[in-house]
Amino acid sequence: MKILVCISNVPDTTTKITFTNDNTQFNTAGVQYIVNPYDEIALSKAISLCEGGKGTVTVINVGESGTEPTIRKALAIGADEAVRVNAAPRDAYFTAFQIAEYAKANDFDIILTGRESIDYNGAQVAAMVGEFLDIPSISIIKKLDYDANTATIEREIEGGKEIVTVTGKFIASCAEGVAEPKIPNMRGIMSARTKPLQVVDSKEVEQLSKIEKFETPAPRGTVKLVPADDAEKLIDLLHQEAKVI
Amino acid sequence: MSVLVYVEHANGKFKKSVFEAVSYAKAIAEQNNTTLTAISIGSVEEADLKDLGKYGASKVLTVTNDQLKNFVNQAYASVIAEAATKESANIVVLSNSFSGKGLAPRIAVKLKAGFVDGATELPSTEGGKFTVKKTAFSGKAFAITELTSENKVIALNPNAFGVKEAESADTTIETFSPSEKSNDFAAIVKDIIRATDKVSLPDAELVVSAGRGLKGPENWGMIEELADLLGAATACSKPVSDADWRPHSEHVGQTGITVSPNLYIAIGISGAIQHLAGVSSSKVIVVINKDPEAPFFKVADYGIVGDAFEVVPKLIQALKAHKG
After folding, report:
1. CATH of the domain at B284
2. N or C: chain A end with fewer CB closer than 10 Å?
3. The total number of structural domains that make up chain B
């Protein structure tokens, strides 16, 4: 069994987000990068599925050389090999196209991603790759069992869940619950340095979207404090002033 | 050209987020001096389809093929893309729901369309550029995204636009028979499990959320009671779902669900930056915390400094009195 896991290089979750160049670029100064937390869940699931020699896990990242420490982290967690498509990702369409091109040339049984990246939150890549490859895509899954070429998947829906089965190739985007994120151990960290990391060129594809500018949310006014023993006052404010109840 | 909106339903019923998507799509159609067509897949009563006219859909396409009764991501994407082509629609609008997130990217690839997920405002065409504002960095920022392609796909965030009634409610209903692609049915839906008595978190208008300050899962009774009284969905912070006090589906924050309700009540949550990211687009935030230095107070509209175990029961009493 061959599994491909798509990983994104994102700012650490504690990062304060600011922008430069007249708010057109993300300010990377002092930012620590991590494996996108949802992709870590996908990777951890792929590693468990392949445990005991049942298969191999390849991680793929579309990014410039600066993403390699993040890729090495994925290798330390337990991926067998890595591929970096050498390009600055322009948008999800570009990234999905690159991943699909690599997947076409290298036969994978399963492709996993995180439900979304925590920077651009597109949640687009998995379904786009599925479309480029003409295989089923199941977005935002909570559980994945795999047995004899058939996957049984729980997908989140509003107020519940849907059970989906797929036989054959598929791509799924993983949310919390699919696997406990694995933490790299010393042996993993040591072996990550020597695991293969292949760099491939990107392929040309039309650009359909681009980010024009960023904005930060407008600051809220100061908090209006209500005494702890006056719950009626709060209800009154929410009803009369804020008009939300 | 025209605008096409996909109207998803659960057991044949449309939710508020769908009327919101139709209202939003209608406003885009008006910006472009064109008409709006809605497409519904699966069995929905004619009266409910007609209802879409109220929000501006002048035509409703209905697809009732047996094979398409249940949601199949791949097949539904094909049907919607085919309808867009048939209607010469160059803008396709969906709700940014769980199903919408699975469908919209596939439709975008099929139509070679630029795609914005999580739109929070109407598009702007200022200076000849078609731009849409969307949430980014898990609620810590917004990205104004330009769509440079001829075809465009937009997925609208819940509670971002509101439901707006159109001037005319006239609509015609037309059966649409899409071509069938056998390859589209490899994924099979075996079962759908819905907790029907609960308000779903992602599109809830009111949310009651609690954190570690509650001390244990056994203390959630009062949170649920408060939520029930308000008709609100329940949510929690990451440490709470990590400790399995509450299900992951309730975890709000940067690595959980991003919500944008009219009212978010945070009880016993200190307000870590990752949690605040997930709630920053809430219209009104109420914080109840015994620590006056809790960072959550800095982004709150209303606050009570006090022990949750004393404040919440009083709040429940006051709410009962308010409701009479």
Report:
1. 3.40.50.1220
2. N
3. 2
210-229 of A, contacting B, C-beta below 8 A: 210-217, 220-221, 223-229
| Residue B192 belongs to a domain | no
Q: Structural domain tally of chain A?
A: 1
Per DSSP bridges, beta strands A110-114 and B89-95 are unpaired
Using a CB-CB cut-off of 8 Å, the residues of chain A touching B229 are: none
CA–CA distance from B165 to each of A55, A243, B53 (Å)? 55, 21, 9
**For residue range A21-31, what is the model confidence (pLDDT) as tens digits?**
999 999 999 99
Answer yes or no: is A245 within a domain.
no
Domain-embedded: residue B27 = yes
d(CA B192, CA B42): 15
Residues of A in contact with B196 (CB under 8 A): 159
> Within a domain: residue A243?
no
Q: Do the domain assignments include residue B199?
A: no
Rounded-to-integer distance, Cα B252 and Cα B236, Å: 6
b/e per residue, A51-81, with b = 16+ CB within 10 A? eeeebebbbbbbbeeebbebbbbbbbbbbbe
pLDDT tens digits for B246-284? 999 899 998 888 899 999 999 999 999 999 999 988 999
Residues 6+ apart with CB under 8 A from B211: B236, B237, B239, B240, B266, B267, B268, B269, B270, B275
> Distance (Å) from the C-alpha of residue A37 to the closest C-alpha of chain B?
7
Q: Are strands A170-174 and A56-63 parallel, antiparallel or unpaired?
A: unpaired
ipTM above 0.90, yes or no: yes
Tell me which chain B residues have a C-beta less than 8 angstroms from the C-beta of A223.
287, 297-298, 300-303
Alpha carbon distance A6, B102 (integer Å): 17
For residue A194, the domain's CATH number is 3.40.50.620
For residue B313 the two structure tokens come to 């029961």
CA-closest candidate to residue A209, choices A96, A65, A61: A96
